Amino acid sequence: MVVSGFGAATILAVTLAPLVGSTHVSLSRALGRGIPFADNVDAQIFFIARLPRVLAAALVGAGLSLSGVVFQALLRNPLASPDTLGVAAGATLGAMLAITLHLDVHVFGISVLPLSSFAGALGSLAIVYVLAIARRRGTSTTVLLLAGVAIAALLSAVSRFVQYLADFTDTFRTIQWVMGSLDVASYAPILGALVPMGLGFAGCAALPRALDLLSMGAEAAEARGVDVVRAERVALLSASLTTGAAVALGGPVLLVGIIVPHLVRLLVGADHRLVLPASALFGASFLIGCDLLARTLLAPVELPVGIITSIIGAPVFLWLLFRRLT
Amino acid sequence: MTRRLALTLAIAAALALGSSAQTGARRVISIIPATTEMLFAMGAGDRVVAVGSYDHYPPQVDRLPRVGALLDPNVERIIALRPDLVVLYGTQADLRTQLDRARVPYYSYTHKGLPDVTETIRSLGRRVGVPARADALAAEIETRLRDIRARVAGRARPRTLLVFGREPGSLRNIDASGGDGFLHDMLETAGGADVLGDIHRQSVDAATELVLARAPDVIIELRYGGSENLAESDLRAWDALPSVPAVRNHRVYLLRGDEFVVPGPRVAEATERLAHTLHPDAFGP
Lengths: 326, 285
Hints:
The structure holds two protein chains of two kinds. In chain A, 74% of the residues lie in helices and 0% in strands. Chain A is mostly helical. Chain A has a single domain, classed as ABC transporter involved in vitamin B12 uptake, BtuC (Orthogonal Bundle). By secondary structure, chain B is of the alpha/beta class. Chain B has two domains: 2-131, Nitrogenase molybdenum iron protein domain (Rossmann fold, 3-Layer(aba) Sandwich); 156-283, Rossmann fold, CATH 3.40.50.1980. Chain B has helices at residues 2-17, 19-23, 33-41, 75-80, 93-101, 114-128, 131-152, 182-189, 208-214, 245-248, 267-278, 280-283, and strands spanning 28-30, 48-51, 85-89, 106-109, 159-165, 174-177, 193-194, 203-206, 218-223, 252-256. The N and C termini of chain B lie far apart (44 Å). The model of chain B is unreliable at 15-22 (pLDDT under 50).
């Protein structure tokens, strides 16, 4: 019931957001068959500029929120975010290397920047995964958490070193990337991101009960019949794949992944059967809304979406937090 | 305006007081490519003892020591080279403070648009002690710019999107010239109408929607520095926007060269290349 409410909000956001923008678009002209697509400016603004953008926002918002929920439960830490284990730092390093080395490769219409940032995410995931399986009987969440913080710090330092060596214009491009952008201008990057995200979402779908029990502690979960080692690995892999794909698609707009899960828990409680789908749906509509503001507030120029998510997200989050405490 | 006045007064004071100002500077360090090019073009290249990290033109600078750049000037190296003049950019406040402390004279300038380029050439020439040659150089640039204006006068001005950065292989993060700055001035001088001219910024991060809505007649992409090796085939990324007149009429162009991003003595050359691209008929075969 609650989840279908979030679902309706998301459907509403996906439907309405492409109708609004910095330019006026006539919907009848955009959808009419009178003018061929190649000459139809309204249709191109609607189908090339806005719709992919809204879909990308939905995917990135859903992915980061979902992996935020998983990381917070897995690490039993309310401050855990999609970047706690260094996955986003790896993605950032990959993006910076692509920008600085002027790599020029395309695969199926996807340009080098998202590809190499996803490769960076996979690289850091591999490090974290090796660390996780190095201890045979499950992972101590504290060890995993601290190792993740160390890896994230290491990868960010390498990123900063790359940036330090880079050219002026490359540094500018890197800053642009870090601030996040959902103006993908085609469907290819979205389809590309859907593959790892689909795997990640499927993995998360198997997790609600295990995450409920894991949040109470590994021993408690084990006593109730959860295969802790397996559940932790599925959680780690799914959340990391999702984060990597989301960051590759939209840049590191990471605050979404901390704020949305908490907002949703404040609204629906702690049951992961509700929290997981509700966070994904709420994250999607939240980022669609933020991107809508990013592209219309200062029109015709745009604000980086990462600025909006933080400016809106942080105060709303604080307000909800303090309202609940008092 | 007050800043310019203050600058003029400071230069006047330096001219009146400093003995080096009367005989001209002998050991000049130039940190920004634009002023390095100016110094060489006004025949003061033999006085340049060190340059910035991004200086590549003229070829003689390759042999000179490097002292950092706009954001990371190496003060220790600069002072160790015992310059009698350091040419730096207006935003390098830390460097100015440190040079003041070390009592090293400097010349500071800022560029906002095309007219500032020749103004800087004249005042830098005075400071270095080659005023006549600097005036001649500035006058030559102004004449060339005037000639371009005359050639394209009366012709239809194509609405142009001037792009100086973009993610390779896609249309993401398009950086285009807005209504301020020397790129915009060069485009307008070359007989183009800046399609983002109403946005009063030097750089506009142009979203796909903005490009579609503004429907430019011509798109010119500039490649420079490390991005020069990018393939011409990368221009095909624009085919994703078939309703844009520039794409439909095959008027998407690629121009390579550092002269487009260095507001120095090559601005006339850069503007001529833009004008040739925008108005091929005006310049004949």
